[in-house]
Amino acid sequence: MRFTTLLAGLGLATTLLSACTRSSTPATSRAPGEPLLSAIQEDDVRRDLFALADDKFRGRRAGTADELRAAVWVAERAREAGLEPAGDEGTYFQFYPLRRVTVAASTRLTVSGKPLSLWKDAWVTTPLNARLDGPVVWLNSLADTVRRDLRGKIVAMPLLPPTPLPAPKMSLWAMRYTLAAIAQQSTALRTRGVAGIVLAANATAEPSLEFVGHRYQDGLYLLPSMPLPASAVPVLLVRQAVGAQLQARGARLQAELTANDYEYPSMNVVARAPGTDPTRRTEHVLFSGHHDHDGIGSPVAGDSIWNGADDNATVSVALLAIGRAWKQRPGARSALFVWHGAEERGLLGSRWYAEHPTVAKSSIVAVLNGDMMGRNAPDSAALLGSTPPHRNSKALVDMALKANENFTKFALDNSWDDAKHPEGWYFRSDHLPYARAGIPALFFTTLLHPDYHTPRDEASRIDVAKLTRMTRWMYATGWAVSATPERVTVDPDFKLER
Questions:
Q1: Where is the Peptidase M28 domain (predicted)?
Q2: Residue 166 lies in a domain
């Protein structure tokens, strides 16, 4: 009752209840043959892409009404396609609790009696309840810690370049630089028993403070089973100008830090298309993507909506297209479609579903996950999980490669699957919890681009023809998994490097 009232307040109750209703579209009884690639059309993919990546969804941030609206939109499209609800209690939805810990607005910071503006002059890097009040000890480098007793002191110093530096041209380079530097310096200072740490941005970090700082303003997102990071020592990141104040003789820092800790829901959308084989239709080929993105963020060229067209509206609409094709020509095994929530907050939706599936976990034959499938050169793509140590099922990889050879003919770049690739891209999408759970899993992608995690990731920049081909490749691979008499299995020597 309270949930329905909340939805009504958001203007979603009628749509949500409609989307929860089982479709009455009759299932076809046609026997499996070749995959019906012609059922996946560019016009349908384009229509859905521009709808889901529209500004009206405000970037679909996890745990917000915007993510809920996007999930309802996906569920309604799944219902229109004739897919069965496969979430909780006969609906298309699986809700799960997100724990969020943020820095409270009541937090107060001053240097020598002069207030600092939270999220403009200074950023609290970890939400916690703490109080600091004392003189500042300024250090020019970590070498200054030698033979000095810093126990119980408030220490300030410039941000130093991390070792090693992030690889050149690595995605989100400035953020990775700053986060690595903060982690290395704060770890070194904590071992000296300091009471508080203040790091003043250097010339490299200063231009990106709003972007990096937005991460800290967001706070932490966790599932209830995940522990809070252990951090009893406050760490502040401040602007260069504040660093100059901290170097002044007699500088004093006062900080009243307060954290908010609360839960609210995110959701997975789950739908199913039954298979035709009497003995194998209880088994599932799981098609996976995520419907959330980053929401409202720091403006770039006046645009503050991070639409996430490639990341990951492309795969969200691809799953709808595959669902429509599966309904027109069902495979032998059933198809299960999971649009995960909160992927951008740490693969939380897929972690939850892998631990709490709405079908028997043993019935999931394979997971075909996609993330960012609509950019870069028209004939290029990548299949992560196709080479050791990331490959967990040679049989599944062979099916995907055969489907590409027969139908879509992409030139594959497997370099991103290398354990030494600096991006660690294999570990950054929703196939990972399933692979860790011992389920054969693959990751279809067209890789990163300069608009990744910026407001420039717009539907108008997507190569819809390429996205349609990628969709057909995922579908043809799933069709092969569905049709084979024997289940694909996990390689006995599979072990991830981390």
A1: 268-475
A2: yes
